[in-house]
Amino acid sequence: MHEIEVMTTASLGDTSYLLVSGDEAALVDPQRDSWAVMERCAERGVRIRYALETHVHNDYVSGALEVRAATGATVAGPARAPYAFDHLPLAEDDEVTVGDVTVRAIETPGHTAEHTAYLVLDEPDGPPAAVFTGGSLLVGGAGRTDLSGAAHTEELARAQYRSLHRLTRLPDATRVLPTHGAGSSCSAGPVARGRSRTTTVGAERRDNPALAPRDEAQYIAARATDLPPYPAYYRHMAPLNRSGPAVLGGVPTARPLSPSMVAGLAGEGAQIVDGRGRGTFAAGHVPGALCEELDDRFASLVAEVVPFGTRLVLVLPEPEDEAAEAALVQLLRIGYENVAGVLAGGTDAWAAAGRPLRSFRTADVTELGARLGEVRALDVRPERPEGGVPGTLAVPLADLPARVGGLPRDREIWTFCGSGRRATVAASLLDRAGIPVRAVTRGGAADLPTT
Fold first, then answer.
1. In 3-state terms, the chain is what percent helix, strand and coil (to 5)?
2. 21 with 168, same domain?
3. Shared-domain flag, residues 233 and 264
4. Which of 148, 267, 360, 430 is least surrounded by Cβ atoms within 10 Å, i.e. has the fewest?
């Protein structure tokens, strides 16, 4: 018999799994910061035998090498994955054992060429109790097939169609345990929020829109075109995971930085990222800083506007030590590990050192609504499903760093989005560029007239 612990990283829309049988375990698609689960296993006297990968990940840095370094586990993954480090390759019908459980590989290409799912068998000849489906069959959807480049998208979509239907031939009661879910850009379409992260084969056969097309051609037409954009940092993840990310052994300690050190780093090209609240940031911030409120979306929004590999300096809310750990964990998950340190004492220390702060004005959406057509407004939502707000400019936040130089500078620009979050990030980008700006920090586009 076995137990399976479900561990969701909501900020990335991903789930890892701990399969335990007796005193042995396998950690499936582990996040880089899997140190806590490893500690729990050690406390229970459970040995992690395998770090098991379903595919080369495009949306986060794998924790498989962290698990191996800490526990001596074997890294196992698809036989066709071109890993540059030692691992156990698993092809069709290859098996490993975890306690009394058999884990059997089934090749399910589509999301990636090497993608492999794993059946969990309490009896080698019995029906599967569960299947780890990674980026193949998802809850209410399927993994996208364009992450390997346009030249491979259709070929992988055809493979995904066949893999999905292979998985749905499993018994109805088989638990489906996908890696990607709501909040992940690895899905080939919207995945309903609020639904369970796991499902069953029977439920998906009845309700999953990805299984609705009658044949492969219809599936290609429905699923391989008009895919939503994915974050720019994704293109760095697969090469990093293939080569093998650096082993950290835990969350690094953030180095405290003085105002003069921060000024020097900024002068050398480091980007200052301020994790305080939007109102506090607008009222006073270090020149050139970007506002990225420290919540579950912190790192993903950093990645939207800060090029991968950029050296970072953090300005954080109190308590600073806890905030630093939370920020670093999120950044490390997606490979943003070039963090120089934290401005010790924050903006108070900056001002006390005689250095100037910048600020910009804020508004709520009611004020913007009353002045539409009078003020210059910039919509930075990633999508505008209702057609947009009349009389406004529109630049998705992810495109703004490249286009900010072309924005008019003759009068103040009001930035707005769906909630005020992206509007404040955008305002900090404009402020960094010396463009007069006001951020709509309260309310969003849903409260404005649309076409």
1. 30, 25, 45
2. yes
3. no
4. 267
